[in-house]
Amino acid sequence: MEGLQGWKKELPLMALNTKQDLNQWAIGCDKDIGGFSEASLELTPQGKGRFFGNISLELPANREIVQSGYAAIRSKEREATMWGTPCWDTSLYRYLALRVRGDNRKYFVNIQTDTYFQTDLFQHRLFLRTPGQWETVMIPFRDFVFTSNGMIMPDQVEMFREKIKTVGVSLTDREEGPFSIEIDWIKAMNSEDTEGDNDRTPSSSEID
Q1: What span, in angstroms and rounded, lies between the C-alpha atoms of 123 and 152?
Q2: What is the CATH number of domain 10-75+85-191?
Q3: Model's pTM, two decimal places?
Q4: Beta-carbon neighbour count of residue 128 at 10 Å?
Q5: pLDDT at 111 (0 to 100)
Q6: CB-based contact 91:161 (threshold 8 Å)
Q7: Burial letters for 14-47: b for 16+ Cβ neighbours within 10 Å, e otherwise?
Q8: CA distance 111 to 92
Q9: Under DSSP, is residue 207 helix (H, G, I), strand (E, B) or coil?
């Protein structure tokens, strides 16, 4: 079945295959506010992005900082035009898909939509079935949880999937030590049986 706008399998969002690709990402960790964790993003010899570093739970002398031990990357917002900041419309797709090779650490996937507060994120665990091997992880958009400043909000709101501004990955397990995750690409995707939030019925020509 073709939808009103035509069924599409995927919408590429971000790739991490060239140095130019990596320039479209921002890196952050608690070192930015005086902590001791370190995080970097590099291009591997195989042409994949590698987000890696070392997590430290040591607190700086600044007593206003009561928690450390985090690291994250996110895609940079695209340059604004007279019509506003360009966003991705993922409403015709059911999943956010990531091609990754991770370790045994725990990660979150983060989505920022066109909301008033920069701290508002939709988050979901990046469950890796085969650490150390490449795998494609597909997360239904509807399964993301609305958070602000890292806290799950009591009043959950639906993701504004027509206006996604950034996507990213963050480290969630506050354990000291090294981490490393390689990322090939991030896309909005359908399976052969889905068209956004609707189940797709094959047309007669497909059945034949």
Answers
A1: 9
A2: 2.60.120.430
A3: 0.88
A4: 20
A5: 97
A6: yes
A7: bbbbeeebbeebebbbbbeeebbbbbebebeeee
A8: 16
A9: helix
Which parts of the chain fold into alpha helices (H)? 19-22, 204-207
- What is the per-residue burial (b if ≥16 Cβ within 10 Å, else e) of 94-116? bbbbbbbbbbebbbbbbbbbebe
How does the average pLDDT of the chain come out, rounded?
Answer: 89
> Which range has the worst mean pLDDT, 37-46, 123-132, 198-207?
198-207
Tokens representing residue 141 in the block: 């958009």
Place of tokens 């497909």: 206
Name the one residue in this structure whose structure tokens are 């958070």.
Answer: 147
Structure tokens at 191: 């399976």
Q: How far is CA 10 from CA 95, 130, 176, in A?
A: 9, 23, 37
Cross-strand pairs, 110: 123, 168
Q: What is the chain's length? A: 208
The whole-number average pLDDT for the span 170-179 is: 90
First-residue to last-residue Cα distance in the chain: 13
**Is residue 184 within 8 Å of residue 100, measured between CB atoms?**
yes
